[in-house]
User: What shape does this take?
Amino acid sequence: MPTLLWIPSALVVATAAALLAIRGFRRRLRGRVLTLEIVIQERRLSPARSALLTDLLVRTRLQEEPPFADPSAFDRCASERLRDLLYRGGDLWREAEELRGLRSDLGFETEEGERVRFLSPILLVAPTGEGAEGVVVARLIDHALVAVKEYPGKLRPGVYLSMVEAGASKEGECAAPVVRLGVWGPYQLVWINVSESAFRARRRTPRIECHVEAEARFGSEETEAYVASTVVNLSRGGAQVRSRPGHDLVPGQQVHLRLPVEGEKVERVARIAWARRDAGGGWPEGPWVVGLEFAPFPAPVWSKLIATVLGKRGFVSADVFANAQEAAA
Assistant: This one.
């Protein structure tokens, strides 16, 4: 009999606790909605940005910080929204642009010196020179998840990609290894290791395979004529060139290399690091293949040149390739 009396009492206590929880939930929810309205008014958000911020708030649990509280909370909600968009196959680039704008409107600044920033459009370049435009849809401490429509060339874990973040003004171009590949809806995903150790494991401006018609003058004498040459791979501070100079080449010789950049000629004074005959070109009368080293291209020139090589005009800005001085060595 005492046990039967205890059951109604337990139900009353449970019901009261549930009512209190609901009342607390409503109070916290009402507080968040009021705070949201204040943020919208203070930040003078447009109707579209206001609706976007409201959607991010709906995705937040009450025990979590709201998206307008701090950058980490915003990024968590934005990443969840992007995952839904990836699965549906929506316009990822437009969505990322809107989220970047909203993040800026809320006054959330990007950490100084951060590489491969969340929500940024990025160009991935494979060792073959093939490029693919993507968006950073998730950013962890040591990894970045980039969504692309199609992989740039044949990728596998361990391959180093050259990454060019649009709008980057300090780190510019860098190289980092692929960790994992995957598919989410119509998009293909590339997990990249962006830790400091991964960046240091290889130079940040790896050579990019290309085919650029150029001119080269082998030797320091001005009487030497420029001869037609082909640049078969290129980095910001070096190149591999095929040419027929008419005489033997040895390491240490000076070379004047002229490259076409948007209708103009850009010249670099280089030294030969190594030289050999191309056995496939009719040995021993085949063309010379030489590795050249020169001072790094200035950032605006390198930006135009790489845009020409990759055929990505309109995507890469002039200051994207502003590497730190030690990275370009």
Remarks:
- The chain has a mean pLDDT of 76.
